[in-house]
Design goal:
single chain; 2 domains; two-stranded antiparallel sheet; mainly beta; elongated; 27% strand
Protein backbone atom coordinates (compact mmCIF):
# COMPACT_ATOMS: atom_id res chain seq x y z
CA UNK A 1 0.00 0.00 0.00
CA UNK A 2 1.17 3.51 -0.74
CA UNK A 3 -0.32 6.48 1.07
CA UNK A 4 0.63 10.03 0.11
CA UNK A 5 0.38 12.39 3.02
CA UNK A 6 2.16 15.60 3.86
CA UNK A 7 3.78 16.22 0.48
CA UNK A 8 5.27 19.71 0.67
CA UNK A 9 3.79 21.19 -2.47
CA UNK A 10 5.54 24.51 -1.87
CA UNK A 11 8.85 22.79 -2.67
CA UNK A 12 7.71 20.50 -5.48
CA UNK A 13 5.86 20.73 -8.73
CA UNK A 14 3.53 17.84 -9.49
CA UNK A 15 4.70 17.16 -13.02
CA UNK A 16 2.57 14.23 -14.13
CA UNK A 17 0.59 11.14 -13.25
CA UNK A 18 0.28 8.27 -15.68
CA UNK A 19 -0.95 4.72 -15.98
CA UNK A 20 1.94 2.35 -15.90
CA UNK A 21 2.01 0.55 -19.22
CA UNK A 22 5.50 -0.94 -18.80
CA UNK A 23 4.48 -3.64 -16.37
CA UNK A 24 1.03 -4.53 -17.61
CA UNK A 25 0.03 -8.06 -16.58
CA UNK A 26 -1.91 -10.37 -18.82
CA UNK A 27 -4.91 -12.57 -18.14
CA UNK A 28 -8.36 -13.42 -19.45
CA UNK A 29 -9.30 -10.41 -17.34
CA UNK A 30 -6.40 -7.97 -17.25
CA UNK A 31 -5.11 -6.31 -14.12
CA UNK A 32 -5.31 -2.74 -12.93
CA UNK A 33 -2.30 -0.94 -14.35
CA UNK A 34 -1.06 0.94 -11.34
CA UNK A 35 -0.23 4.64 -11.42
CA UNK A 36 3.08 6.46 -11.58
CA UNK A 37 3.44 9.85 -9.88
CA UNK A 38 6.25 12.32 -10.56
CA UNK A 39 7.11 15.35 -8.40
CA UNK A 40 9.79 17.78 -9.60
CA UNK A 41 11.82 19.46 -6.81
CA UNK A 42 11.81 23.24 -7.31
CA UNK A 43 14.34 23.59 -4.49
CA UNK A 44 16.16 21.24 -2.15
CA UNK A 45 13.61 19.36 -0.05
CA UNK A 46 13.41 16.36 2.25
CA UNK A 47 11.14 13.32 2.09
CA UNK A 48 10.25 10.41 4.31
CA UNK A 49 9.07 7.24 2.61
CA UNK A 50 7.61 3.95 3.77
CA UNK A 51 6.78 1.74 0.79
CA UNK A 52 5.86 -1.92 1.17
CA UNK A 53 5.28 -4.70 -1.38
CA UNK A 54 8.44 -3.92 -3.34
CA UNK A 55 9.60 -7.53 -3.70
CA UNK A 56 6.45 -9.65 -3.91
CA UNK A 57 3.98 -8.53 -6.57
CA UNK A 58 0.22 -9.11 -6.37
CA UNK A 59 -0.55 -12.62 -7.55
CA UNK A 60 -2.17 -13.58 -10.81
CA UNK A 61 -4.98 -16.07 -10.35
CA UNK A 62 -6.17 -19.09 -12.32
CA UNK A 63 -3.40 -18.76 -14.92
CA UNK A 64 -3.15 -14.95 -15.01
CA UNK A 65 0.23 -13.22 -14.73
CA UNK A 66 1.31 -11.55 -11.49
CA UNK A 67 1.05 -7.77 -11.04
CA UNK A 68 3.74 -5.18 -10.49
CA UNK A 69 5.29 -4.07 -7.23
CA UNK A 70 5.38 -0.66 -5.59
CA UNK A 71 8.51 1.47 -5.92
CA UNK A 72 9.80 4.87 -4.87
CA UNK A 73 12.99 6.71 -5.67
CA UNK A 74 14.30 9.91 -7.12
CA UNK A 75 16.11 10.77 -10.32
CA UNK A 76 18.84 13.39 -10.06
CA UNK A 77 19.39 16.02 -12.76
CA UNK A 78 22.33 13.94 -14.08
CA UNK A 79 19.95 11.00 -14.73
CA UNK A 80 21.15 8.73 -11.91
CA UNK A 81 18.43 7.17 -9.75
CA UNK A 82 18.35 6.29 -6.08
CA UNK A 83 15.73 3.91 -4.63
CA UNK A 84 14.40 4.99 -1.21
CA UNK A 85 11.74 2.50 -0.01
CA UNK A 86 12.10 3.20 3.73
CA UNK A 87 13.89 6.36 4.61
CA UNK A 88 13.54 9.42 6.82
CA UNK A 89 14.68 12.90 5.90
CA UNK A 90 16.21 12.03 2.52
CA UNK A 91 17.44 15.13 0.74
CA UNK A 92 15.99 15.51 -2.75
CA UNK A 93 18.23 18.01 -4.56
CA UNK A 94 16.75 20.87 -6.56
CA UNK A 95 16.00 19.74 -10.12
CA UNK A 96 15.49 16.09 -9.12
CA UNK A 97 12.26 14.18 -9.69
CA UNK A 98 10.64 12.04 -7.00
CA UNK A 99 9.17 8.96 -8.72
CA UNK A 100 6.42 6.96 -7.02
CA UNK A 101 5.11 3.77 -8.66
CA UNK A 102 1.89 2.33 -7.24
CA UNK A 103 1.30 -1.39 -7.71
CA UNK A 104 -0.90 -2.91 -10.39
CA UNK A 105 -2.90 -6.06 -9.78
CA UNK A 106 -2.43 -9.46 -11.32
CA UNK A 107 -4.40 -10.87 -14.23
CA UNK A 108 -7.16 -13.45 -13.79
CA UNK A 109 -7.40 -16.48 -16.04
CA UNK A 110 -5.16 -17.59 -18.92
CA UNK A 111 -4.31 -14.78 -21.37
CA UNK A 112 -5.20 -16.99 -24.33
CA UNK A 113 -8.83 -16.93 -23.14
CA UNK A 114 -9.13 -13.13 -23.41
CA UNK A 115 -11.61 -12.08 -26.09
CA UNK A 116 -9.77 -10.84 -29.22
CA UNK A 117 -12.04 -7.78 -29.37
CA UNK A 118 -11.09 -6.85 -25.80
CA UNK A 119 -7.37 -7.12 -26.66
CA UNK A 120 -7.78 -4.91 -29.74
CA UNK A 121 -9.74 -2.40 -27.67
CA UNK A 122 -6.94 -2.33 -25.05
CA UNK A 123 -4.42 -1.53 -27.80
CA UNK A 124 -6.58 1.14 -29.43
CA UNK A 125 -7.30 2.80 -26.08
CA UNK A 126 -3.61 2.83 -25.13
CA UNK A 127 -3.70 0.33 -22.27
CA UNK A 128 -1.22 -1.99 -23.98
CA UNK A 129 1.06 -1.72 -26.98
CA UNK A 130 0.59 -3.77 -30.11
CA UNK A 131 3.91 -5.49 -29.35
CA UNK A 132 2.61 -6.48 -25.90
CA UNK A 133 -0.63 -7.78 -27.43
CA UNK A 134 1.31 -9.88 -29.94
CA UNK A 135 3.57 -11.28 -27.19
CA UNK A 136 0.90 -12.11 -24.58
CA UNK A 137 -2.28 -12.42 -26.67
CA UNK A 138 -1.09 -13.85 -30.01
CA UNK A 139 -4.51 -15.42 -30.62
CA UNK A 140 -6.12 -11.97 -30.75
CA UNK A 141 -4.19 -10.44 -33.67
CA UNK A 142 -3.45 -11.99 -37.03
CA UNK A 143 0.27 -12.26 -37.81
CA UNK A 144 1.70 -9.47 -39.99
CA UNK A 145 -1.65 -7.62 -40.07
CA UNK A 146 -1.38 -4.14 -38.56
CA UNK A 147 -3.98 -3.29 -35.95
CA UNK A 148 -6.89 -1.45 -37.52
CA UNK A 149 -6.55 -3.23 -40.87
CA UNK A 150 -9.07 -5.68 -42.24
CA UNK A 151 -6.73 -8.40 -40.91
CA UNK A 152 -7.95 -7.99 -37.33
Amino acid sequence: MIRCSGIGLAQTLFSRRSRNLRRFRAGKYRNGLGIDWFFHALEDCYVTTIVDRRKTPPWGLEGGYGGRTNDVGFRRPDGSREVIPRATGVKIPKGSTLELACAGGGGYGPPDEREPGAVRKDVLEGYITEAHARAYYPHALKPDAPLGSSGE
